[in-house]
Amino acid sequence: MSEQQDYRIIGKAIPLKDAVDKVTGRLKFSGDIRVPDMVHGKILHSPHPHARITGIDIRRAESLPGVLGIVTHQDAPAWEWENCWHNYGGRILDDRVRFVGDEVAAVAAESVEIAEAALELIDVEYEILEPTFDPIESLAPDAPQVRAEGNARPPTEVIWGDLDSGVEMADVIVDASMAFDSQAYAPIGRNACTAQWEGDRVTVWTCTQTPSEMRDAIARGLGVPISNVRVISQPCGSSFGLWWIGSLQLITVLLARKVGRAVKIGLSQEECFATVKRRHLERSTGRLGVKRDGSVTFIDLEHVHDNGAYGLKPDVGFLTVDLWGAGPHGRFIDRGVSTNLVTAGCMRGVGDVTMGAFVERLLDMAAVEIDMDPLEFRLKNHIRAGDPLRAMEGETLDQMDLASLPDGWPELGKLDGEALSDCLIRGAEAFGWNEKWTGWGKPSAIDGPKRRAVGVATGVHSCGTEDEYPVSALVRVHADGSATLHVSIGRQGQGSETTQAQIAAEALGIPIDRLIVQAGDTDAAPPSHGAIASNTSYRTGFATWDAALDAKRQILETAALQMGSHAPDDLDMRDGVVFSPSDPAVSLTLEEIMSTYRPDSMTPPMILGRTSTPMPPSMMYARYFAAHFVEVEVDIDTGEIRLLDYVATQDSGTVLNAKVLENQVIGGAILGAGFALTEHLAFEPDTGRILNPGFLDYKVMRAPDFPLDPGVLFGDSHDPVGAFGAKSGGEAPTTAPIPAISQAVYNAIGVWLDIPMTPERVLEALGKI
Amino acid sequence: MTRSFQYLRPDFPREACEMKAKHGGKAVFWAGGTDLMLQWRRGAVDIDYCIDLSGLDELRQIRSGEDATVIGALATIASLQAHESLGSDFPVLLDMAERFATPQIRNVATVGGNLCHGVPSADCAPPLISLDAEVRILSPEGERTLSLESFFVGPKQTALADDEMLAEISVRRLPPRSVCTFERMARSYVDIALASAACRLTIDEESRISEARIVMGAVAPVPLRSTGAEELLVGIPLVDITEGLLAEVGARAASDTRPISDVRTTAAYRKHLSGVLVKRAVAEAVRRLGE
Ligand SMILES: Cc1cc2nc3c(=O)[nH]c(=O)nc-3n(C[C@H](O)[C@H](O)[C@H](O)COP(=O)(O)OP(=O)(O)OC[C@H]3O[C@@H](n4cnc5c(N)ncnc54)[C@H](O)[C@@H]3O)c2cc1C
């Protein structure tokens, strides 16, 4: 990538902009917000998984001294709010509860303690309805129906080629099924929401990855113009998809309006775990055919995911089809189903973590049959640039004529580029794959009850999505030459403020410390799709880049006026100095340009750069990839699986900031490995109540549970569309750990396991318990 | 729900017992608070009076004497690790402490709190019971001594009466040619044990096992000693300890367990695991004695 060496800021491992504030405790989170005159709210949750509220008497609670007001379903608009990507559909408060933990009412009081005491004084009468929990059983037409729309979402299907021919062509056909428990978002930090009405204007302080979408939802739900809603997104400990739009915020806003005071509701750890969202419970079955030479002839997969009470997702995404769709024939079906469990939604790597792991399992089982090295098998079959994206074939773009795409757009429906082979080959080298691989089902070392073996797997995710919302940014250049970037992405801690700042400062041509990022105030930032679906580096990055270039264009035009003899095209800016590449004698600092007032120029005191180039629809051509290598040790007496060595590689296009991306890759690998081995929500069988709503019994991996010094490598690639060639970063690394670890476990002990691969499951599979 | 409470800070152990006697069931002793804080936040304990034990400096000490080592109930897990001779006298306590929680928790969590909380998974219990530890208990009227083994009565129940306090744990110097080992397994690095096992073996001059202790954690309502498994070992020369005998000892110990299924794991797994851990603890003790 020859262009890269000229960059001043792109590609530099600049420390996170808020790192020092974080480690010194100065950073303020949503729970730290205090506004004058604020009172405290608490939410009453349903003890029943499925019931109709036939009566709700708040008089005793209201008369408790210090209580200011209570909202119930009677105060909620009939309007059903929707979260992004069908992650929620329902009223703010309803007269029906659909899971243990569902919101019934909320109290505002002078103190948290009074609010808590008041909750116990709300008398609710429930008419108990029959609940349904199992995803497969809930699909049956005679299952209790969780929602007015019915439990089953219409199946989503991707079909290409002709399955029967694929079956005929195959030398070997394998079939399998796999079950996934539900992973929790397990937020280390908790969220709070503070809402303050001034007349019919409301300001909301909370953590959200989607400030613009939240603003619009509040406006629609509360019946006020968008101009009257301001969302100021606060930093959070972690989100992984948990904090988008939520009942928390809508209830707080409703309650604050009713009591006429600013209200803050802070969630407990238990509420964060058990009442917001989780990863779907998923079940896969399928088969796959290969020829003896290792080429895939068909894939046929059926997947079911539960949406919990309020999720409405018809599918968890088919990106894995894109990765393995090079074979000529295939069929993927996914069915979403409602259950009386807490809502399920998009968690980091949604679909690719689960469906992807299942397809990789089928690949592995086929490779076992034809005895082909899993690395070689993947190198042979993975998608290449220019291959069709199967899930996108036949898709159309709303309101657009595909025959006349804007100039410079990549071909839609085909993958624009990848460096997956590069990742696999270099990863294998760094890991020592050839030395460690001893063949299918053969441990590389046996020491008493301990069996060692290795595994390799791949994963994919979208580089953001265009379906819901455009991306947009504003760059303001001030009179002293400093600049502010406004982007609506929130502050979930993944380092996006730093990488967006790098893009803006590089494109503009100013030093990074002359630019600050304002990442979550909807009164200042233009509406833009939030930091979800791996949007931020790729799609928001594109918008930021475009806005910065727009500002730069205006700066150079102004400079040209001031420099007289030079046309804007003759000028460039670097490190905050405008110069002429052809005439070294000419230069002006940005500050000089910005602070010189000329009657014929609008320039001082500010230039405003905005996004004006539409981002091509990246779902239709861009993907980013991961390939992970792992060595495990399985103790066949205790069932314990330990990770001994790990190498994670990633094709994220140009690396904007190696430190930030490395953190994403390792963090993603740990999150995926945690789901592979220890993480699962336990639901009480009769009620669906979550039995482990906190870190005491929900076991995320700690640093010592993961190899201390994992290798991280980046593939050599450069995206033709993304800012400076960058793609996305945060989700693909969660997708490869499960298949890599489960392949290694198979090699160690000869069994394929459901997820997570807990010690009990290992021993059960070995027939020891 | 969290409510406010009265905070009391005694200067002497006896005063602490008197406060407890006076305020009855809704008064609690607060040592490191690492168990209590979680229970209180969850609403699992009501606290009207919190008796903060942190002023009782004399109960924080660890004293090694000629015949015995005395560990004050308020000694922290970290102080076990920091003590100059405890580690060489009783290396098993270091093994245990190293696997206990995190450095932060070890700095505040006390040995007494671990035992008095009374859960079957308490990590201090199996090694200390295998060392035949005794506990000294204070009350407003006086004091009594009890074997640690009989201190545990049921889940979260100990032999302490309402006005009694655990003051010290004392461990006799081990007979020569003794080794004590500890095995533990959990779901992740920081976790309550799914099961644990401690084993102490003493051999006589002919290298025959003269004394054996096998104690398991988290597999019964209380930390559980398996005398049946111990008996299989007593009198056996070290050299005659075969893989088969080890398996038999493990199986015998496992058969004594009465584990539960809970959110952490299943009873079947705990039972199986306890056998494996006992076998490993014994094998390791035999290996070290043979060195
Ligand atoms: C993150 C985390 C990890 C943990 N990991 C482990 C682990 O690995 N292994 C393990 O065994 N435990 C673990 N624990 C549990 C806990 O830390 C230990 O049980 C600890 O030793 C308790 O001691 P404490 O001083 O904090 O007790 P406290 O919480 O102060 O007290 C516990 C109970 O004992 C009573 N009590 C305390 N001292 C006395 C006394 N002298 N006389 C009478 N009653 C008394 C209290 O009233 C209370 O009922 C962990 C806890 C946390 C939060």
CATH fold-type name of the largest domain in chain B = Uridine Diphospho-n-acetylenolpyruvylglucosamine Reductase, domain 3
The value of Rg of chain A in angstroms is 27 Å
Low-confidence stretches of chain B: none
How many beta-strand runs of chain B? Answer: 14
Number of domains of chain B: 3
Map the helices and strands:
The complex is a heterodimer of chains A (769) and B (291).
Chain A: H1 19-23, E1 39-45, E2 51-57, H2 59-62, E3 67-71, E4 80-82, E5 89-91, E6 96-97, E7 103-109, H3 112-119, E8 123-128, H4 135-139, E9 156-160, H5 163-169, E10 172-180, E11 192-198, E12 201-206, H6 211-222, E13 229-233, H7 247-259, E14 263-266, H8 269-274, E15 282-290, E16 296-308, H9 319-324, E17 329-338, H10 355-370, H11 374-381, H12 420-431, H13 433-436, E18 445-447, E19 450-462, E20 474-478, E21 483-486, H14 496-508, E22 515-518, H15 536-563, E23 572-574, E24 577-580, E25 583-589, H16 590-595, E26 606-610, E27 623-635, E28 641-651, H17 658-677, E29 711-714, H18 737-749, H19 759-765
Parallel strand pairs in A: 1-14, 12-13, 16-17, 21-22, 28-29
Antiparallel strand pairs in A: 1-7, 2-6, 2-8, 3-7, 4-5, 9-17, 10-15, 11-12, 11-14, 15-16, 18-19, 19-27, 20-21, 20-26, 23-24, 24-25, 27-28
Chain B: E1 6-8, H1 13-23, E2 27-30, H2 36-42, E3 49-52, E4 62-64, E5 68-72, H3 77-82, H4 86-89, H5 91-98, H6 103-108, H7 111-117, H8 125-130, E6 134-138, E7 143-147, H9 148-151, E8 152-154, E9 157-158, E10 165-172, E11 178-185, E12 195-203, E13 209-217, E14 224-225, H10 227-233, H11 243-256, H12 267-290
Parallel strand pairs in B: 1-3, 2-3
Antiparallel strand pairs in B: 4-5, 5-10, 6-7, 6-10, 8-9, 11-12, 12-13, 13-14
Helix pairs in contact in B: 10-11, 11-12
The structure holds flavin-adenine dinucleotide.
